[in-house]
Amino acid sequence: MKRYEGETCVLAYSGGLDTSVAVAWLRETLGFEVVTCTGDLGATGDLGAVQRKAIASGARKAIVQDARDIFVRYFVWPALQAGALYEERYPLATALGRPLLAKLLVDAARSENARFVAHGCTGKGNDQVRFDLAVGALAPDLTVIAPMRGGMNMTREEEIDYARKHGIAVEATKKSPYSVDENLWGRSIEAGVLEDPWGRPPRDVYQWTADPEEVPAPPYELEISFVEGVPVGLDGEEQSGVDLIKTLNVVGGKYGVGRIDMVEDRLVGIKSREIYEAPAAVLLHQAQRALEALVLTKDALRFKARVAQEYAELVYNGLWFSAHHQDLAAYVRSTQRFVTGEVRLRLDRGTSTVVGRRSAHSLYQTALATYGKGDAFDHRASEGFITVFGLPVRTQARTQALWGEGSEAALEIPRKALTAQTDRAKPQRARK
Ligand code: ARG
């Protein structure tokens, strides 16, 4: 294998077995001087311990950083405002974390004058794409090394063996039977028995959320405040983004809210069974959407839903640092200028329901909506409106007799449509 004596490689380091072995391997096999780079997005725990482990694994230097505020402010909130849910469900915790970790990696490479960066992603997932594309977008001159994608090729047993030989502490605790990634915005769990999409997830998959059958009995209500689409408070009290998310993860989890079990489409073409736990993300998306329903016009809601899909797709696909993202984000931000107000949610045995919303910018007008006293809507004006709105329908009825004659003919959508198509498909065949 090619060696890189005298070169520095900055490795995105989690403190786990894979990346610890990678430190030693990059040094021993490729001859790199290794600097590790760790960003805490809310699940790293003791940064000092991570730093010591990196050094013990053979790193020349270990950079650690609490990046939780940056994560929430520049990645989580914009994605929330966009309504970004991949394939309608996944709040994108892992996908949002990668571009930030890649950015920290690039920053570290610059300050270390390194020409190489590395990550511990395998060649089958989305995460490698996200790292590689983000590094490519921010620093196209850097070369990305991915030992787990080729070169290192160790089974877990071999990794443990290798770690022992290189003085790397292997946690005594039993390895999780799943592949897990965690940050403030959610917990992603895959592999192991979850690979059978028909199999119900075993209890031990879930760490943040209670079984909905075992939650406290009385439902629980909470109130979330937003300013321009950003959550700023809980039950009338201001909270920082990080604290708010942490609290909602705990409270939501206690009521069994935030479990997601789905089959999703990875960018590399594989369908994959994924479990997520994301109480805060589920609650905040729900609340944000409820507030938008109150303050955005029907047109804005419809169009924004399409942008949300596009936005989710690009985040999932690792295109965070792209012009397309900048353009969509600019639109999203503009839509949020009236998304200020409060939403009440009720948590009950695994479900959360919006039970109230209010805003100074509300487009909801009781005088227009009411069926009671004080109705200001002009009922007679509806006649003229319907006459014009229904014009195409009546014209078609007169000229195309779409629904035929007789009471049964008007029920037969499929057969009618099919016959019409068949007739068109065989125009010149003679009728017997
Ligand atoms: N499927 C999710 C995604 O692509 C989660 C990936 C989790 N990563 C992991 N190393 N377990 O964003």
Q: Main attributes?
A:
single chain; Rossmann fold; Argininosuccinate synthetase, chain A, domain 2; elongated; alpha/beta; 432 residues
Sum this structure up briefly.
The protein has 432 residues and is α/β, with parallel strands linked by helices. The protein is built from 14 helices and 14 strands. A five-stranded parallel beta sheet has the order 3-2-1-4-5, with helices on both faces. It has a five-stranded antiparallel beta sheet with strand order 10-9-8-13-14.
**What form results from the Cα inertia axes?**
elongated
In spatial order, strands of the major sheet run 3-2-1-4-5
At CATH level 3, the topology of the largest domain is Argininosuccinate synthetase, chain A, domain 2
The CATH architecture designation of the largest domain is: Alpha-Beta Complex
Terminus-to-terminus distance: 77 Å
Specify the CATH class of the largest domain. Alpha Beta
Mean pLDDT: 93
Give the uncertain stretches in residue-range form.
none
Q: Helix and strand succession?
A: EHEHEHHEHEHEEEEEHEEHHHEEHHHH
Q: Helix amount, in percent?
A: 40-55%
The tally of beta strands, per DSSP, is 14
How are the secondary structure elements laid out?
Elements: E1 8-12, H1 17-28, E2 33-40, H2 47-56, E3 61-66, H3 68-82, H4 93-111, E4 116-118, H5 127-138, E5 143-145, H6 156-165, E6 179-183, E7 186-190, E8 220-227, E9 230-234, E10 237-238, H7 241-254, E11 259-265, E12 271-277, H8 279-295, H9 298-316, H10 323-335, E13 341-348, E14 351-358, H11 366-369, H12 381-389, H13 391-400, H14 413-425
This protein binds arginine.
